Amino acid sequence: YQIEKGFSIMKNLTTHFTNITKYVSESRPILQGIQYNKEGGFIAATDSHRLLYYKSEMIPSTYVQHPLTLAFLDGHYPDITKLLSKTGKNVLFDPKEITPTLISLLKALKDQVIEIKITNKHVSFHREYEGAFFTINLEKKGSPIENETIAFNAEYITQALQFIKEVEKYETKELIELNFSTNVRPITFRTSIYEYLITPIRRKG
Question: Which one of 26, 178, 195, 204 counts the least CB within 10 Å of its CB?
Fold first, then answer.
């Protein structure tokens, strides 16, 4: 039963990895594939703007495979573990704070820039340079945080939050750690099982 459940989970997760790989340029063909790493015990995908890292003990060997053609890809996959920083600031929130309403609002803004503002009490979502349209309450705060505003591609944030909700169904009920540092550095949604990193949009001025 556990093996059958595990393969079912992997099948569902492949959609989220494919969201990252499907628009990768042909100039970097190795990134069009999903990396299965037996030695490291993880599955990963990156397009240089996002990185999804997921721990798994069900990987039979190490290889890179295109999720649509199922072809095995040759080449050196970058060492993505170097990007999984433990430095910076952290806040925690309950995945139940990610509601269908938030997902729907973000989907409607998929071609736009959104801002995420992080304070000691909550994380809020804004249209660029506008007021908040949704707020997530924090469960636990660390050291005092100066209000931080970071701009992102709305579609990237939408897909990250959809992934969090997908995993919550069958894998983990733990709080989500949001790791960040400055408005030009990536943010990472993290649990003991996965890390989902997104780079911000750099704005002038």
Answer: 204
